[in-house]
TrEMBL record:
This is Arginine transport ATP-binding protein ArtM. It is found in: Cell inner membrane. InterPro entries: AAA+_ATPase, ABC_transporter-like_ATP-bd, ABC_transporter-like_CS, MetN_ABC_transporter-like, P-loop_NTPase. It is a peripheral membrane protein. The keyword Transport applies. It comes from Kluyvera cryocrescens (Kluyvera citrophila). Coiled coil: none annotated. The keyword Lipoprotein does not apply. Residues 64-307 form the ABC transporter domain. Belongs to the ABC transporter superfamily.
Length: 312
């Protein structure tokens, strides 16, 4: 009996040790790296070369157009007949009170949520629509090729926790084989340098602050060289002192002529960088106008919304 007890304790001890080792190994929050950015990566980041832009056929069509979008959850209408037209290079901010449908709209624009009615096109080509055939229930249709034309930055960063910063940037373009490994690494280093995160290339997301993670998320979206960037309240999950570092990156993109749609509660930022501002309430577009017109008092509902905001 003593021998049986001994072997039982030995087996339990060994299995307990192996289980704890496996848990530690799989716990991505315990991963640390001391690897430093080497001279080669610094050189790649600062090399002068033509931008690796995806070729786009010149067109007078809107970069992004949404027509009469409807969306409801459990028979509760969230969006009703929302239409939006955005020209190439235009920066449009979407503002409004909480619950007005801003996030739902931006999730419909890139297909993260299915529309109940309406259609979305990119450069005049159908992207998302409902296919109706006789009396049958309409079918949700999406041209998946256009998905690569849209980059998305989320409120909560959504970085892959088991990948390094560099790994997060390289994952999608590797999968879609956008370029050679050397070109992708160079482009990743350039973007990390651009957003001030090159020195953190080998770190894991849990080693970064919220502002740093969001800057990495922006660089990751840009890796696919999208024509259109969508931002869903990119600063809402950040501490106040980290907000400006993210807004500065977005502002620099606006100056570069990237087409952008920004859902935000940062009013001063929206009025500073936007060509147009869309005000939403109760699932409807109440006002779509320039920042100058919004400031002029032409829209009473917007004035009421901004009455406690000191616009610079």
């Amino acid at each position: 009996m003593a021998a049986v007890a001994f072997y039982y304790i030995l087996i339990v001890t060994v299995f307990d040790f192996l289980l704890k080792w496996l848990e530690r190994y799989l716990d991505v929050t315990q991963r640390k790296t001391t690897r430093q950015v080497d001279a080669q990566m610094q050189q790649l980041a600062t090399a002068n070369r033509p931008a690796m832009a995806r070729s786009v056929t010149a067109s007078q069509e809107p970069a992004l157009q949404a027509s009469k979008l409807h969306k409801a959850y459990n028979n509760v209408e969230v969006l009703g007949a929302v239409s939006l037209k955005i020209q190439p290079g235009e920066v449009v901010s979407v503002i409004g009170p909480s619950g007005s449908g801003k996030t739902t709209l931006i999730r419909l624009l890139n297909g993260l949520e299915q529309i109940d009615n309406g259609e979305i096109s990119i450069n005049g080509q159908p992207f998302i629509h409902l296919n109706r055939q006789g009396q049958q229930k309409p079918r949700f249709m999406e041209n998946a090729e256009h998905r690569l034309n849209i980059g998305m930055v989320f409120q909560s960063f959504n970085l892959f926790p088991h990948l390094t910063v560099l790994g997060n940037l390289l994952l999608a373009p590797r999968y879609h084989r956008l370029a050679s490994e050397a070109e992708l690494r160079q482009h990743a280093c350039e973007l990390l340098h651009k957003v001030g995160m090159l020195e953190h290339a080998w770190k894991y997301p849990h080693q970064l602050s919220g502002g740093q993670q969001q800057r990495v998320a922006i660089a990751r979206a840009l890796m696919m060289r999208p024509q259109i960037m969508l931002f869903d309240e990119p600063t809402s999950a950040l501490d106040p002192e980290k907000v400006n570092e993210v807004l500065q990156v977005i502002e620099s993109l606006a100056h570069e002529g990237i087409t952008m749609v920004i859902v935000t509660h940062e009013m001063n930022f929206a009025f500073k960088v936007s060509d147009r501002i869309v005000f939403m309430e109760k699932g409807r577009v109440v006002c779509d106008d320039t920042p100058q017109a919004m400031r002029s008092g032409q829209h009473p509902r917007v004035d009421a919304f901004l009455k406690d905001v000191s616009l610079a």
